[in-house]
Amino acid sequence: MNLGRKQQEEHIRRILDAYGDLLYRMSLSVVGNSSDAEDMVQDTLVTYMTEAPDFPDEAHEKQWLVKVVRNNSLMFIRKQKNRDRILSEQAKVSVGRDADYGILDVLYTLPDKYKAVLLLFYVEEYSVEEIATVLKKSVSAVKMRLKRGREMLSERYREKEHEG
Question: Any idea what the CATH number is for the domain that residue 21 is in?
Fold first, then answer.
């Protein structure tokens, strides 16, 4: 992307306004803590400015950004030597109003493959087909992950309710 400095800043601002929350939540769902999620979003923006192709429309741009932030986040996790530290930080993530977000707290404890599918489907309102494309999985695999993720989420949420 060959833009002047001011144009680059405006372009990045547009990307952050349009997709910043989505990219942050996607990354947070994988890396488990806000500072690393912010780093992954920043890395995604750098990749966008240096490697992004020309997109035919905003939907393709959004899909590309989601893929890149997810891949960056997964690579980050793979490189971590101390997985336990990340999981403990993930448990400490506060999403705000406890009563309203109890289900999100439980969602963040699910395995990544279910968490990502549920977030894309329910929070970002992606279709099953769009999720399959983003995650490079079959439609059938996405449907199965949604089913199993819902079951797991329901079970864990009930357990949490009984504890509390």
Answer: 1.10.1740
For helices 128-135 and 139-163, give the axis angle rounded to 10 degrees.
100
SS3 124: coil
CB 48 within 8 A of CB 98: no
Contact 49/1 with Cβ under 8 angstroms? yes
Q: Answer yes or no: do 102 and 81 share one domain.
A: no
- In tens, the pLDDT along 48-106 reads 888 888 889 999 999 999 999 999 998 887 776 444 544 445 444 433 444 445 777 88
- 88 and 99 assigned to the same domain: no
Q: Which domain holds residue 131?
A: 95-164
How far apart are alpha carbons 87 and 109 in whole angstroms?
9
* Cα 127 to Cα 139: distance, rounded to the nearest angstrom: 10
